[in-house]
Amino acid sequence: MLRSRHTVPLLILMVVIGAISVSVALFIDWLPDQAADQAERVDQLLWFVIWVSLAIFTIVTSVLLYAAIRFRVGEDDDADGPPTHGNTTLEVVWTVVPAVLLAVVAVWAYLVLSDNEALASDRLVVDVTAEQFAWSFTYPDAQVETGDLRVPVGRQVELKMRAKDVIHDFYVKEFRVKQDVVPGITTRLIFDPNKTGTYQVICAELCGVGHGVMRARVIVMEPGAYQQWIDTARREVAAAPSAPAPADASPAPGTDAAGSGDTPEGTPAQP
Known about the structure:
With 271 residues, the protein is an alpha+beta fold. The chain is 37% helix and 22% strand.
C-alpha cells in the first residue's frame, strides 16, 4: 500500500478533509452550557460518537473523491471495466469495526444511563403536571404549587410527572435530560443541578396548537436562597384563605390571577 502511487495523494486528501471536519467540530459552539452532572456524562459519549463519525467520514469521503477523480474515464469510453470479485479482508474489516464500535457505544450508553438515574437518598422530590399548554410543579413536603421549578444547586432532584390530556415531553437542554409525560402513567426524571441560573423547560413533544409556547423555567438557587423561598411560600400558603375561588375566577395554570403569565411564588397544592 505504501508503495502505491495512490498513497500520497490519498493521504493528502484525507488530511485536508480531516482538517476541515475537525475545524467545523471544534470552532463552532454546537452544545449548550452544562448545568447538571448528567450533561457532562452525555457530552462525553456524544463527543466520542462525533469523533468516530468524523474519522469514518474522512476516510470514506477521501476515497470516494479520489476514486471519482483519478479513475474517471473519457466521455467516449463505453467499455466495461475489469471484473471484480470482492475483497474478503476489506469486507471483514468493514463488518468487524462497526460491530465493535456499536458494542462500545451500547455499553457506554448503558453506563451513562445507570449513573444518570442513580438515586440519592437526600433527593428533592417534585410532582410535575403537564397539560395543554402549561407546566405546574408541586412540592409534596411543603404543599406548595408553582409555575416555575425552583431547586437547590448541588442536590439531586427527582421529578414525578403526569399528564392531564395528551403526551408532553419535559426537556432542559442544559441538563441533557428529556422524558415523555404520558396520560395515565407516572414517569420519572432525575437530574443533579450543579450550576445556579435560570433555564428553560421546553415541551419537546408536539402537543397541540400552543405547543410552541409551552414553556416554564427551572431556577437553580443556592441552598440558602432555596430554603428561604420554600419557607416563604409555605407561610403564604398557610395564610391563604381556605375557601376555594369561584371557578370562573381561577387563573389558568402558569398564570397569575390577572392572566399576565407571571408565575405565582406559591399557591396551595391541589389535593
